[in-house]
Amino acid sequence: MQPARLPRVRLAPLPTPLEEAPRLRAALGARCPRILVKRDDLTGLGMGGNKVRKLEYHLGEAIAQGCDTLVTSGAIQSNHCRVTAAAAARAGLGASLVLRPGESEAVQGNLLLDRILDARIRIAPAPTAAAVDAALQEEMEALRRAGRRPYLIPKGASTPLGALAYAEAFMELMMQTTDLGAAMDAVVFCTGSGGTHAGLLAGTRLLQSGVDVVGVGDGAKRSELAPVVAELIVGLAERCQVSLHVPDEAITVLEDYGGRYGVPTPGCVEAIRLAARTEGLILDPVYSGKALAGLIDLVGRDRWRADQTVVFWHTGGQPALFAYADDLGGAR
Ligand SMILES: *Cc1c(COP(=O)(O)O)cnc(C)c1O
User: Fold this and answer.
1) Spans in the chain with pLDDT lower than 50
2) How far apart are the first and last CA of the chain?
3) 82 and 169 share a domain?
4) Tell me, what's the pLDDT at 4?
5) Given this model, what pLDDT does residue 3 score?
6) CATH code at position 228
7) Cα–Cα distance list, 12 to 9, 15, 55, 236, 254 (Å)
8) Are 188 and 89 found together in one domain?
9) Domain span at residue 289?
10) Residues with CB under 6 A from ligand 1
11) Which of 62, 63, 60, 46 is nearest to 12 (CA)?
12) Same structural domain, 72 and 163
């Protein structure tokens, strides 16, 4: 890879920590593998999460192209939109967010932060992809008419550039596990728009690490997400001029733990409680809680042996907790 030639703005303090989770492991029984937590919730900017790494190359490209406003879209509680607004503020650019109506519209969590970060917010008239896209195009036009130079970041920053950041993150993790003397067998994380997934898969293939990359869907269906991940890997390989082949069967999207997007499942609420009580580790109700619910279930099904090592990749998202107080407040 030759990413040095790509413009990039450093936003995240790297490497993020890799932490042991012994009390969580003990709570999951004697057959539980060693669990390490990759703390990408601690990427810093605007309350962090996986979107910070993904935005570094996008912000670099936006500035290199002379753009002055970042434009993107997402769910009403989108972490990606919140971090985009923070990245714009950090770089002295404007931010326009097109949000999909739906879940709660309470000014809480990410939506509250979007406002504090002074992003321009447009709520799409309907919760469909077509309505969001149309509103996004209108926003781009309105900005151009106002003499601005907008830079459009696709949903979730899941582009070859976003995936590249996660291929590098995988390499960062490999160095950390090597330092610990741990042979990593699997990484488990929540997959949604596919960029994190594509990057981690590309990373494991490029290093020929043999690590099993286990994506837990956020409600996403494998039939829809796997082709997106495959295409992002092709785009990443082209962009970096590396040869990279990832077979379709290596793209794992588990569908049993996501339920409906944006709706916490009972397993997710249980996983959030368990991580908090055993490790003081705070997960989120839309992504990382579902990913841990998947990991917990797989441990119960003996997917790994006790002498193996599994990395739980914490992708952040905690601000959304506060928009889901009704689902979680009763947790005891
Ligand atoms: C966006 C997001 C994900 C999913 O990452 P993708 O690259 O979009 O698949 C997982 N966790 C959190 C907290 C997120 O905000």
Assistant:
1) none
2) 48
3) no
4) 58
5) 57
6) 3.40.50.1100
7) 9, 8, 10, 21, 29
8) no
9) 3-49+158-328
10) 49-51, 79-80, 156, 158, 190-197, 284, 287-288, 315-317
11) 46
12) no
Could you tell which of 50, 213, 232 is best to mutate to test the pocket of ligand 1, judged by most ligand atoms within 8 Å of the CB?
50
Q: What one-letter code names the amino acid at 236? A: L
Q: Closest Cα partner for 242 from 233, 255, 251, 230? A: 233
- CA separation for the pair 251, 312 (Å, rounded): 17
Q: What is the pLDDT of residue 59?
A: 98
The answer to whether 151 and 275 are in contact (CB under 8 A) is no
Question: What is the number of residues in the chain?
Answer: 332
- 256 occurs within a structural domain: yes
Mind telling me the catalytic residues?
78
Angle of CA points 128, 116, 85, to nearest 5°: 55
Number of compact structural domains in the chain: 2
**Atom of ligand 1 lying closest to residue 49 CA:** 13
What's the confidence (pLDDT) of residue 96?
98
* Residue 95: closest CA among 40, 151, 43, 136: 151
Residue 332: predicted pLDDT: 53
Measured in Å, residue 34 CA sits from the centre of ligand 1 at 24
- Provide the edge-to-edge strand list for the sheet that holds 34-39: 18-20, 34-39, 309-314, 186-191, 212-217, 252-254
56 found inside a domain: no
